[in-house]
Amino acid sequence: MLKIKNLHASTEDKEILKGVDLEVNAGEVHAIMGPNGSGKSTLAMVLAGREDYEVTEGSIEFNGEDLVDLAPEERAREGVFLAFQYPVEIPGVSNINFLRAAINEKRTHHGLEPLSGKDFLSLVKEKSALVELDDKLKNRSVNEGFSGGEKKRNEIFQMAMLEPKLAVLDETDSGLDIDALKIVSHGVNSLKSKENATIIVTHYQRLLDYIVPDFVHVLYDGKIVKSGSKELALELEEKGYDWIKEKPTV
Amino acid sequence: MSAAESKKEKFLSGISAGSSVHSTTAMNKLNGLDFPTRKTEEWKYTRVSKLINSNLTKGEALLDAEVFSIQQLDSYKVIFTNGNLTHSDLEDNSSISIRRLTENDVLLNSQANEEEIFTTINLAYEHGGLYIHVSSGAIIDKPVEIIHLVDGKNTFAQIRKLVVLEPGSELQLVEGYYSSEHGFAFSNIVSEIIVKRNAKLHLDKIQSESEEHWQINSEYVYQEQDSSFSINTITVNGGMVRNGLNIVVDGSNCETSLNGLYYLKGNQHVDNHTKVDHKKPHCTSSELYKGILDDAATGVFNGKVFVREDAQKIEAFQQNNNVILSDEANMNAKPELEIYADDVKCSHGSTTGQFDNDAIFYLRTRGVGEKNAKNLMVSAFAEDVLQHVKNQPVRTHINTLLKTRFDWKL
Fold it and tell me: What is the pTM of this model?
């Protein structure tokens, strides 16, 4: 599904990603771990198409298509979803109206008719139940005045509505108490299927107790320096990242 | 004859001088006035040379402007075409009288600024006019909808309106300004509005003329004690639009509310000059103007609030916020407060910036195209002003105009 080859990316002339290689197949869950400043969030942003980052070398292939030249909205319509580490508050823009616009633009892109108001609302009802999102929050301005946990639940609600092929969850566990973490993880797990894939970007192992990865990769200084099974995450939790830093090559 | 004099004469050669004694007085006054230049403080950012060098003629009355009326709005309709009053729904009754303004109708307590050249031209030369009089204690059941249509190249449309609300009366006015795409034309509009004791006037003003049309619109409002005046000025289109809104609050316990929205693109130039003069104590005024400027559009906001020495316990708030969507768009904002009383609450502020890139990126990552993402942001930004348009059919009409002009698919 996703093939990242020798990916280099810079922002303001500073190289952050220095040759990332990663392959993700349908049905898989990958965790990308690493210390602060290793480039984890940059990788997430580059996948989503943030224009502040320039891809200077390498390629990102998604279902056979080159992602690098696609605008963020085109990637989204093709099935890429980024759950933000810091979801943006947008005063005045209704959560529901914006999602309806998003879904209908995606449907138009795939040659489908826009959803009727009725169908849209029943979809909202179904998907918001998944993450126990309060009715009031759905109708409010996007993320405005939401608590940290509500923002993350709103991200997963949007993901459920958009049904992406590839979901990238950027530090989705940060700022969550244990109950919210369980709700969010339950949402993500229920959305998993043989047809889609998930990349979990996280500093801590905690989230991986709830969303169990098939593969764990360690990103350090802009490169994946170690890959392994879910046991690698436990090892990192126990030993910290220092032993990785000492042995920057595998 | 000086160069300035011959310029004035040429500009006015297409229209005829008025014949009333008031016109003659105004004509004498006009002889001492010159067109504003870049050195004229009140017109610093708005050039009129294109206008005064044009060849304009008096427009003929047209028949059908019905198509511009607001759908679903149950109203008394009044229609002006090319500056001439061509239709009025309303028969005079004991509550309200609407009739053609005669050249002899001049308000005794007129606040019209005789130093303002376009206001003085309006009185000195022939104009189509309307006189609305609401009787004491009358609450008018339906809005009066005034449709102004200009159709024809180089038309010089002169319109004058007098609106008098007797004590305790209430009226809702909806004004729409439209033009066909027939090229350059000019509307010179003066409105004098008297809101007497405990009377209440609300005005929704919708400007949607073509990108080649020029409009200079001067309003002079006089409020007596316990009265309320509110206006929403929504500018959707128009090549050059100058709104001069002058309000004298000459009684205590008054409320004044001014809201404006201008969304500009292309080479549009829109200038909102407002002046609220608090002469008496215990009044509130609030003012919110918001602008969105795209392409090479330019905007001007100049809001002045005076609080005179006797006007204690005044609360006056003024806010102007602008969003620039392009590198070439330009906004000139100047909020001003002049306070001579010592026990007042006043604030003013102005911001001009761009939309939050993080927000636009966020919307795009959900599949919303860049243009629609911006439209969503614009619509949210505009809502603060549009929420003051309480009449639903009017609100829907404004939304339709915005959707058509800016390709909103919301």
Answer: 0.90
